[in-house]
Amino acid sequence: MNALYSLLFVFLLVLIPLFGVDAAHLRTFFGVCIPTTAFIIFVVGFVYKVITWGRSAVPFRIPTTGGQFQSFDPQLFKQNKLDCPQTGAQTFFRMVLEVFAFRSLFRNTAVSLYEGKDYPVVAYKSSKWLWLFAITFHYSFFIIALRHLRLFLEPIPFFVKGLEFVDGLLQIGAPVMYLADVGLVVGVLLLLGRRLVLPRINYISYVSDFFPLFLILAIALSGIYMRYYAKVDIIAIKELTMGLVTFHYVVPETISVSFFVHVFLVSTLMVYFPFSKLMHMPGVFLSPTRNLPNDSRAKHHVNPWNDPNIKAHAYADYEKEFGVPMAEAGLPLDNPENGIPKDEA
Q: What pLDDT digit, counting tens, does each position of 165-194 carry?
């Protein structure tokens, strides 16, 4: 039902500009007011969230590790520098692989339970399909976003032209079919299918999990429709987008309604982004489970929240102070003499 609600909501979002642009004569509203407001909300919300996370205190070293820590005898136990980094440089390389290659997801394993001869057997096996879906989706989305810079910059940067050339290298169709367009649709369909088909994943999926996938799929399909079927006036669109950048707003009459549907969906995504799970994009850089070296056994870290007037209370002192009630409660003592009352000692 969560998937159905999300799909219906995205369908309603498509209908709003579809009927509002021509029927209500709101071309300027959907072409200028909506995207400008959405961009402001996106920037303010994004910056606010990042600043809030950045100001959050991280008193302890809590990096997620999956390998050998640096031992006193490196020859006997070799340190895993990427899974258990101890220096800033090692942590940096770990973050680079995490951000650009989704390394932790690449190491994903699937758990299966088999009926053995005498008892059930638990088996672990490598599962790379989720990593493949995710990296296809994210890189395709990123490339498409960079390609769209040609609409907001004049002259068009050389790297955008080079990216378009590489993306359309196969020269499929006319106009040329971009590989990133296909990758985005395939990637989002695979991620969506995973949540719909797998019972365990579907059970824990909420509207907040389905909605962004359906929304991004609608954005991708509307963009593909404009490029390959509607054949919109790209010159008029460039005139509108450059007007948004230079604050000289103009909405040419030759722009078709399909463009306003696409822009409205993109604007919805921008407004939704800072308040959703999609904020994992900047969140990975600020996550203490990733961006901190695991050096808690090499350095002494003092919690900045500690009251300097409160002195450390070792367990030996704790046992001397509370040894009698601990002994009466049947708790084991390192020093049994601590459990003897002073008047009997």
A: 888 887 777 788 889 999 999 999 999 999
Instruction: Please give the DSSP secondary-structure letter assigned to residue 273.
Output: G
* Chain Cα centroid distance, residue 109: 20
The DSSP output letter for 334 is S
Residue-wise pLDDT for 138-163, tens only, equals 999 999 999 999 999 988 888 998 98
For 153, list phi and psi in degrees, rounded to 5: -130, 140
pLDDT in tens, 285-305: 999 888 999 888 888 777 777
266 close to 219: Cβ distance less than 8 angstroms: yes
Whether the CB-CB separation of 226 and 259 falls below 8 Å is answered with: yes
- In the block, tokens 């910059």 appear at 153
Burial class (CB in 10 A: 0-12, 13-18, 19+), 109: exposed
The percentage of residues in the chain with a pLDDT greater than 90, rounded to a whole number, is 46
Least Cα distance to 45 among 290, 266, 279 occurs for 279
Which residues lie closer than 8 Å to 65 by C-beta, 6 or more apart?
83, 84, 294
CB 213 within 8 A of CB 195: yes
The residues that bridge with 315 in the sheet, in sequence order, are none
